[in-house]
Request: fold
Amino acid sequence: MHPLRGAIAIVGAADTAVGVVPHMGATELCVDAALRALADAGLRKDQVDGLITCNAMAEPCMYHAETIAEYLQIFPRYCVSAATGGGTTFAALHQAASAIMAGLCHTVLITMADSLRSGMSRDQAMKTQSSCGHPQFESPYGPTVPSLYALIARAHMAAYGTTPEQMAEVAVACRAHAALHPGAQMREPITVQNVLASRLIADPLHLLDCSLVSDGGAAVIVTSAERARDFPHAPVYLLGIGEGHSHEHISQAHSLTTSAARESGERAYAMAGLGPSDMQFAQLYDCFTPTVMVELEDLGFCGVGESGPFVQEGHIRLGGRIPVNTHGGLLSHCHPGNPGSMFALTESVQQLRGNAGVRQVPGAKVGLAHAQGGIMSSHATIILGTERN
Amino acid sequence: MDAHAGKHFPRPTPVSRPYWDACREGRLLLQLCSGCHKHQFYPRIVCSHCGASTLEWAQASGRGTVQSFTVVRRPVSPGYAADTPYVIALIALAEGPVMMSNVVGCAPEDVNVGMPVEVLFETWSEEITVPKFHPVATGA
Reply:
């Protein structure tokens, strides 16, 4: 058995207010998330000896984790700013687990936040958007982030006959779940027709195929399974984790219709000794609707090329075969950039604690979350469970 | 030249300069590995197929097919507003490598996956000429 399997657990998890949160900047949101997670775990700040953050676009710092440690006046012996785009959150969990296993520290606070909605100057927003793509061999052609994901959508349509209606169902399912989450940014139910009637951003992607732009943060506290017994909430164990990294620029991808989610998923399943049919929910990275289609296939929830009909048949809804993004995901809960998947993590913890209220997956004992960054570039898959063995 | 003001101008590096110099002369160059005889793009100091460092420049046919594409309806920045809507495409070159480009010379609605295309060159400044693609004329 892999030494990491069941070796660490999440003992604290919390979100800040999300959506439009103008009364706090990115740094304050990061600190607020940390304080909430500490309270959830019943810990004093000096009981944390590891800190992992990621930089904020709205308030970038040269040394982000050190800035947050200084603000909080904590003095960790392990302190890292992680950066693999949207995959940062679970890559950070991988680093935290490794650091604890290696004895570098015993309890790690992972806190991430950004203020993309309220905290970005117009110049910052423009610069961030126009910096996408390879500076010599992609950017001159004027790609936008949605356009790069549209290339994946179009390739999937051409290869498998996937339709815009099927992709739209991903957005509809996420919205239906967000409607059950009191903190979600967008809670008004939508239909496939609403998605298709929203304006085209980059064919075939409509506005409602694209994730939100949000303020918000979330944090978790991770410690060894041994220590995890003495916390107010039942521990949520890390049963499997895996990463996969295939490229940075989409024009260098070896495939447009599959991704390194396949490798990250295989690694996580192998560590956990579990497979896709064992998962009771899947929080899948949903920066755009086609991302979820590719992930459903790569992570083994349906066959290659079959995600269109799979989604259309309602299998990713609560009550379906594999409920996806029970909190609403980046499409409807919130998307403050790199920290986006932190909410998939905190939602997974709530589901496994049985605290998800009206959106609870009945009897949830094991679930999967997947994050990716770049343009299907860096992938990290985690499998969490309520039982260590 | 003013038509391209505000666009993202590539900055040639020592390794990529021959590529951009050739574009200025209306030629599309790829690196060709003399070890494994495969082409690669973008330019590197090492062959991405076999790891050899014996790379030469070879003129490409300039022909390829559209591997995937999208029509950008909201420009990335004001410099691209006059071109909007514009087609971003991945072009599978006849020699093997894939490159990103714009498909021009036809209505965006007429682009499709698998469409044969051919390179053309758009001069942006004295130093920079950018390769783009247009549909191969029927019967050509």
